[in-house]
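Hey, resending since the last one bounced:
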Amino acid sequence: MEIVVPSSSSRPFLKRATEQFIEAWRAGCKAFLAWQYDEILSKRPSPEVLADHRDTLKWLLWATRMLHAQILHPDYPARQYLPEVEGKLGQLEKSWEMIHNPMSDQEVDRILNQAFPGESRTGSVG
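The structure tokens again:
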């Protein structure tokens, strides 16, 4: 006897639950990125705020990577969200690199010298 698993289109509860889960993830990402802009990018954050950002972003990245892995499964009921999840994952990874793994001053100088050879720097960031 063969077991037939109905497609996700015939499982309205699963489809609805999955969409609600993705909507909660989407709202969490949106709130985090707004907070990041207000408290990290627009100000000089305190060490405590930076630590909060680091911890929150670490877990949001983990959750987004898990969601991404789920969506890659061929039977995931909402694969249409794959481009959005991949885009948001990239955005969160860029946040990590920019804020918690920034370039060294030497790397900045090297890139600027390559882009603008012969020009002197007039100041520094910070």
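DSSP finds four helices and no strands in the chain.

Sorry for the duplicate.
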